[in-house]
Structure formats: C-alpha cells, structure tokens
C-alpha cells in the first residue's frame, strides 16, 4: 500500500521557496546586465551618430541599420565582406583539425600503452601554462621560413597552422575518453581483428560526440575572436580576418561608432547562431562529464 501522504506530496506541484525565487531574480538581473552590451550595440548600429550624444541616451532601435551596413561593406580601405569570409575559412579549418587531431591524441593518451605516455601528457599540460604572447616573435620568424616566397606571413596559412591542434583539446578529450570508453570495448575490438584506427572511428568517436561538439564550439568561437596573431601576420594585407577589419573600422582621427558597431553586429551574429544552435550540446557535454567524473 502506498503512503497517502507521500502520494499527495508526489502529486503536488513543486513549490518555489523564497530562496529559489531570489535566486531566479538574481540570475535574471545578471542575464540582463550581460545582454545589455549586445542590445546597446544593436541600438547604436541602427541609429545615427547623434544617438550617442543624446541625454537621456537612446534606448530604442532606429531605422539606419541598412544604411550603416551599406557603408561598412562599401568601404574601399576595409574589405569587410572578404574579411568575414576569411574568418569563416580559418575558424572552420581550425575547428575541424582540432576535433580530429585532439580526439585522436586524446584516444592515444587514454587507451594506448606506450613508453613515455605520462611524461608526454605532462609536457602537453605544461604548454598551457605558457602565455601565447611569449611565442609571437618566434612564431612570426617560423612562419617567415616556411616554403614559398616570403614564407607564410601575410597569408591565411600563417593564421591556420598554429591552431591546428591545442593542448587544451588534447587534455579535454583524454579526460572524457578515459571515462566514456571502457577498456573492454577497446579489447573487444582488438579481439575481433579491428585496427587501431578502426577502433577509433567505430568505437571512440560515437562515444565522445558530445565532448567533440563542446570542443568544436569552443574552438570555433575562440578562433573567430582571435585578434593578436591575425593582426600581426595579416595586419598589412588587404584581406585580414573580421576582428582585424573591425579594428580598421575603429581607427582614424574620427571614429563613426554607428559604423563600427554595425560591423561588430555582423561579426557577432555567426557566434550567436552557433551558441543558440549548439547550446544544448554544450550543456549535455558538461553534464555528462560531471556525471561520469
């Protein structure tokens, strides 16, 4: 017989305690403050420059978005449309490379037995403690010695090559594969005569798709937002990445902020779309990692 009191409690709608109400209120305020810069960017991108000087400030969108975007894409010294295309190419290639190489290296460190495995993993982790700024000069010299006339500096290859594999990606995939792929599955594949690459494609990859989705989204966003290295190697060219093109829009003695923020709005839209589409995958990957650990 079921306990009547327990059955009544189970059938009752969940009650929000005062603590949970205050928590939701606090989170709503944090979200509002976090989203306000994006909204303000949209407001200025749809108005004229006079909107910045208004007191009280302009808080409603205007009707100048099309005009401002036309100015951004028609500027002769800033090839913004081509810069967006370059960012798409660089981010897509780097993301695909990171997913392949980092998942493959993570599988090797997690499930394969070879001499020096732990020492190599420690070296990979230690590279994450070195700031990227310390290697900029050496990287620029290295890209200048690559095959081709003048090396790779000034080309998209110089932006793509340093990001083809990341230490964070290797470490992240290793930790996920350790728990997501039992050793028995790997041994069963070997008994069936499968090669190491066949085990990777048929056993490991299907099991770690949530982690790969999270790593892919994080890598794409980080590559798209990269500014320092593309500025150094592509700053003097006519077709840089979108972040460098935005800095060109903001340069000069007189800055038209409506034009700068209109370009920033266009450069932000792909990231917002990816985060909205892949937000569930990020939460799923984080939750699965938390449960397995």
Automatic annotation (TrEMBL):
One of its GO terms (biological process) is transmembrane transport. Coiled coil: none annotated. Its main location: membrane. It holds the Pfam family BPD_transp_1. Residues 84-278 form the ABC transmembrane type-1 domain. It is a multi-pass membrane protein. GO terms for cellular component: plasma membrane. It comes from the Bacteria. Keywords: Cell membrane, Membrane, Transmembrane, Transmembrane helix, Transport. The chain crosses the membrane at residues 21-42, 88-110, 122-143, 155-173, 199-224, 256-277. InterPro entries: MetI-like, MetI-like_sf. Belongs to the binding-protein-dependent transport system permease family. This is Cellobiose transport system permease protein. The lineage of its organism: Bacteria, Bacillati, Actinomycetota, Actinomycetes, Micromonosporales.
